[in-house]
Amino acid sequence: MTIDTLTQARQAREALLAKKAEQVTLLDVTGLSPVTDFYVIATGNSAPHLKALANEVEKALGDEGIKCFRRAGTPDSGWIVADYLDFVVHIFTQDQRDHYQLERLWNDAKLVE
Question: Where are the beta strands (DSSP E) in the chain?
């Protein structure tokens, strides 16, 4: 993990907040997850909102030269995942967030303010 990774994850969080995402959480999973250092988790209130949130993250980070490695899921599925390798952005509807409970899954992770 580098400070740059944390800064990038925070930029993703700020982009989500700018588009009115709810319950935006940044978890430090360094040493807990074999695939990434941070999870940014957010809730949108509809399929169009999920799409707008994902697009805003991609635009805000892209403007900084940070490219998404892979994006999966669809707004209609209620879950979009954007993989930036050192951090991953999860954007859920409330129903999907309640179902998958990532914060519970990663309850050993440190919450980043």
Answer: 22-28, 38-43, 70-74, 79-83, 87-92, 110-111
Q: 3-state secondary structure string, 82-112?
A: EECCCEEEEEECHHHHHHHCHHHHCCCCEEC
For tokens 């209130």, the residue is 45
Domains, the chain, with CATH or none: 3-111 (3.30.460.10)
Structure tokens at 57: 């993250």
- The answer to pTM > 0.90 is yes
Kindly report the length of the chain.
113
pLDDT in tens, 68-95: 999 999 999 999 999 999 999 999 999 9
Question: Which 8-state DSSP code applies to residue 36?
Answer: -
